[in-house]
Design brief:
Length: about 220
């Protein structure tokens, strides 16, 4: 099956995003992230891998959320979409719960606009930790950072430990099969989460980043 057919089959019809008569470019992605370093570095690494493999068949655009979070990030995404010269077929917003009170509301607002939301409770660092092993411990982001710092040193991934500005983050984590492990661990953790009944803010730890990552990695299967 051709890759474009595969992704048409995976993707449900999307809501009108104020594009008017313009047709979204097939297999195009807009990924708007909360963080300025960690998330963009991770997805840029995956983007590079995809472009090296399939070239112009997919356009992945990673954009920093300029330090904004939750509802403000939804507003920034709206601005990006409205200013886009080429309509995006797939729009993802990536953000964490941290200590924000509007976490659930921001997820609802993003989904109501037709966006996909890849959220993490409490932080993106939980998603990174899943590359090394499974955990259902409800920890603060500082605790996840400390665990990652130890792991990056002990695994020889970085002499200085875990830092938010690691440029080759995706490559490092994928070098030992960590990305697929993270997807499997996230699926295992989230199998009891019911999106229609459960509040993301109450599901800690939790993450849906694996949905976006697995979708993008589908381009690497051929």
């Amino acid at each position: 099956m051709k890759k474009e057919d595969l992704f048409k089959k995976r993707r449900e019809p999307r809501k009108n995003r104020r594009y008017g008569f313009k047709t979204p470019k097939a297999n195009s992605y807009l990924i708007v992230t909360e963080g300025k370093c960690t998330e963009p570095n991770y997805f840029n690494g995956l983007k590079k891998r995809i472009l090296d493999n399939v070239g112009g068949n997919v356009e992945v655009i990673d954009i920093s959320g300029e330090g904004a979070s939750t509802q403000k990030l939804i507003e920034i995404t709206d601005q990006r979409v409205n200013r886009a010269k080429i309509p995006y077929q797939n729009i993802w917003v990536v953000f964490d719960k941290d200590d924000f009170k509007d976490f659930d509301q921001a997820i609802r607002e993003g989904e109501d606009r037709g966006y996909n939301v890849a959220w993490s409770n409490q932080s993106f660092e939980y998603w990174i930790y899943l590359h090394f092993g499974y955990s259902d411990a409800d920890l603060h982001r500082d605790q996840w950072n400390a665990k990652l710092d130890e792991l990056f040193k002990s695994k020889g991934l970085s002499k200085s430990g875990y830092k938010k500005n690691i440029n080759d983050l995706y490559e490092l984590l994928d070098s030992f099969g960590g990305v697929q492990k993270a997807i499997n661990n996230a699926k295992n953790r989230m199998k009891e989460f019911k999106s229609k009944k459960s509040k993301p803010s109450e599901y800690a730890p939790g993450t849906t980043v694996h949905i976006l990552v697995e979708e993008l990695r589908g381009y690497l299967e051929y």
